[in-house]
What we know:
The protein is mainly α. The protein has three domains: 73 residues, no CATH class; 86 residues, no CATH class; 216 residues, no CATH class. It contains ten helices and eight strands. β3 and β4 form a beta hairpin. The chain is globular. The chain starts with a helix and ends with a helix.
Amino acid sequence: MIIAKKSIKTFILSMLLSVSLVGSLFAQGHGEETSHANDKSSHHEEEKFNPSEFINDHIADAHEFHIADWGGHAISMPLPVILWTDNGLVTFMSTEFGHGKYRDVKASEFTRTDHHRKIVEKNGMKFEMVNGNIYYADKVADIHPADLKDLAKAFDFGIRPINLSPTKNAFSMVLSVIFLFLIFSKVGKSYKKNKMAPKGIAGFMEPLVIFVRDDIAIPNIGAKKYAKFMPYLLTIFFFIWINNLIGLIPFFPFSSNLTGNLAFTFTLAFITFLITSFNGNKNYWGHIFAPPVPKALWFLMIPVEIIGMFTKPFALMVRLFANIAAGHIIILSLVALIFIFKTVFIAPVSGAFVIFMSFLELLVAALQAYVFTLLSALFIGQAVDDHH
């Protein structure tokens, strides 16, 4: 009976979250249609709904949390913009750039006389946001459209200041750290006070910790060496899981796509790579630089083994990124069908699939945390394994 009640509560909560997502996105779509209608009356043109821009706008990082659109105006939660410039530190709120419509504009569409440009002037300098990046306004017109996707240009501080701003993903990451700190602080206090069987949140967390220890760490690293790596494995398991869940909640202060961001997954995979490399024993390095094959094949096997050192963390990075980003894209694509077909009759079908995908994503959120932790333990175990 208790399980049934919990299942009903979980179902109702999932329904509310899914309806909130569809409602929020529908509101945005309606706001966009209103905005397009106004543009048509003034310019006799009507822009078509672009599902790619619609999806990219939601899964991309930003300097604000977009909540909804009302009457053609965006309702958003701004974040502070912190820039280190040639004239020192500059700070202001992201609302001064306006809403995200300035993020996805091609550089070729900007000119020095363009009245649509949103320029912020601070400390004797002018700044402009293009595709989510902040540039010096007087440099924007000189940027070639291809340069906006050039990774090298991201470090060209002659055309853009050093951006120290907390973006939506950074905000969510800090929020998840706070959640984890509060949860495990409470669990620790519970164990100090209660010497009997764990209760409450400690009773929920203990099986998960034991699961990571007994089913991930010990089988892959070994009973003698697993304890050294347990703090890291527990951290990435709960850190990834809670950020996956945060990304599924479609309203502020959640709704980010942190684990669907390549920079985030790259950082986690790189940490695993460092731990694996620094803890590798002579057997591990010997297998790479003196593989157990005839010496005549070393010229072929040694490069393969070296490449294998980097393909393992690369697979970690891409697997987590692709699975989480794909889930968001599928859900948003289902919602976009309503605006593509321009009929409310598709809404019930789309909404039903969105609810189904939301339930599936709850499973994927835990599964991807498990897979990343499992593979990290496997790679570490290979590095510290003794020669038999």
